[in-house]
Design brief:
The complex is a heterodimer of chains A (270) and B (398). Helices cover 72% and strands 0% of the residues of chain A. Chain A is mostly helical. In chain A, helix 3 crosses helix 4. Chain B folds into two domains: 241 residues, Rossmann fold; 113 residues, Coagulation Factor XIII, Chain A, domain 1 (Distorted Sandwich). Chain B contains nine helices and 18 strands. Chain B has a six-stranded mixed beta sheet with strand order 5-6-7-3-8-9, sandwiched between helices. In chain B, strand 13 and strand 14 form a beta hairpin. Classes of the chains: A mainly alpha (270), B alpha/beta (398). At the A-B interface, helix 2 and helix 6 of A face helix 1 and helix 3 of B.
Amino acid sequence: MEIVHRIFSKQNRALLSELVRTDFKLRYQGSVLGYAWSLLRPLMLFGILYVIFALVIKSGDNIPHFPVYLLLGVVLWTFFTDMTTQSLGSIVGRGDLIRKIRIPRWTIVFSSSISALINLGLNLVVVVVVVAINRVDIMSSILWLPLILIEVYVFALGISLFLSAAFVKFRDIGYIWEVILQLGFYITPILYSMTIIPARYQKLQLLNPMAQAIQDARFAVVTHDPKVITVARVFNNGPYMLIPFVIVIVVFFIGLAYFRSRSQSFAEDI
Amino acid sequence: MQDDIAVQVEHVSKTFKLPHEKQTSIKGALIGALRRGNRSFERQQVLDDVTFDVKKGEFFGIVGRNGSGKSTLLKILSGIYQPTTGSVQVSGKLIPFIELGVGFNYELTGRENVYLNGALLGFNRTEMQAMYDEIVDFAEIERFMDQKLKNYSSGMQVRLAFSIAIRARSDILILDEVLAVGDESFQQKCIDVFEQYKAQKKTVILVTHDMASVNRFCSRALLIDNSKVVEVGKPAKIADMYTKLNQQQIDKQTESRNELAEAGSFQAKITDTSGRPVTSFRTDDNLNISFAWTDKLKLQNIGAAIMKETGEMLYGVNTLELDSMKDVVATGRRSFDLSIKLNLGPGRYYVMYGAFGADRHQSLEFHDKGPSFIVKKDSTMDWEGIVNLEADWHGSDK
């Protein structure tokens, strides 16, 4: 408890809130609709995906409420990419501060993560709207959703800490991460139903924490239809189903440890 | 740490590893890792066993020349750099101002920037609200607080930044060379604040080149040179040592330039009247220039001029109509002297000189930047300017 108290001291809270506030004030600088874009942008992007994948290509394989199913995946993946790419350059981007002021380094990465979280919140509003329009029956399993979101956040935070610290020394990381995200976009079941994947690869695919989280979120919120393949289903509730969670925890602690060991010399290395 | 000590620095050393080529790519790191045996970086020691303390309520000055390690020390005190060895202990809230307006965002208004800057210094909104009026008052820019910072003049930006620095409530304040900002009336205000701090016994660490402010405000000062603490003591003594250190440096530069100028077949050396080489004179001293040349140079005529540092000729002569020079040439001697009564105001000067053949336009060797010297103010000097024209005042009774 002591450490939590120290991390969220009065000064750090003030700093975080100012950094996030500034970020938001500047985001829609000079645009006529301003903050409305926070909701309009995901709505419009979703509209495009809906037309292409639910109406034209019909990749839904008759999954009930496929629009919501599709949207949930897109929202979670967008959150993951937003947060990691924003954090990646955050330390280098704030180099002027780091070289001239003493602020806890992690607050910079943390403030990018909060900006991404706020965006996620707005996108979830869109999800709620689509859920209502589709008349999805709310099941008690929706209570899992907050835990799934926490899992994705912790995973993205671990990666963000690692990337932002590594980017200080190796600027190649920016390009490499872009390619990895592109790959991740296709190996994660975002736009398609997992039923099109051969059964023996489904297990492998669900070891990826993002794939596991997206499928679990769909199961929890949209439908328990057997075509929603989750990690618990492919491993028959066996112990292997824990692998993605272990990966999340390991990634988080590696990211944290790496960040801590590098952060001492950020001011000299940038 | 004792109760009366605000900052304690013990045996702090700092070494930077400077790779010969900065590796900011993975390929570079891979190649570097393969060659681990002969990795090419230099270790540069910037601070060497620095120990001192600043007592509570002290106005402490840190002075040193450029590259002495002063800025690194400051960054270590501020917690921006970690010392390689040794420790720094700080009691109370320390606010560093290495540079003014760090973290200012030009797209935000003045008001928003005050809060943002406050947060960067560790103050929350409520605390900043309490200080806000004072800050704006001090900066004298009430009318502009709701305008974006990008529309501020640079003077206004600096004033706002400095006001936040000076009004922020901290136990220890570190200021780096910030006195030189703003117009005269604003500078006066800053000086008043410093006086206030001094009277209130606030702990301030001031890093500066300006010996006048060290003497005026500091209760103690530290001189750092070549990564080491030279002395900690009374400001007057430190200021004196610092000035001497600088003078040594200037002398060294002058000497090395003069040595360089000597290396031709035709040389000029600056000496005093007794023939000793010197580079520094008083306003009405006599200066002697000894010319010497080698056999090879079929020299008939010497030209010499005293030049101001900025390149204007003050005075020039040659030996064209000089009988004694003809004697020198005829007898085959290879040296000649020129003596000049300086009558010059304080400053830096140099000699331009050349060797000519029988035809006055036939230049054999020419040194457009010869040996240099400095002239210092004499205590009896009762005039101003570059040249003493030796004027006389007269009564009007004709």
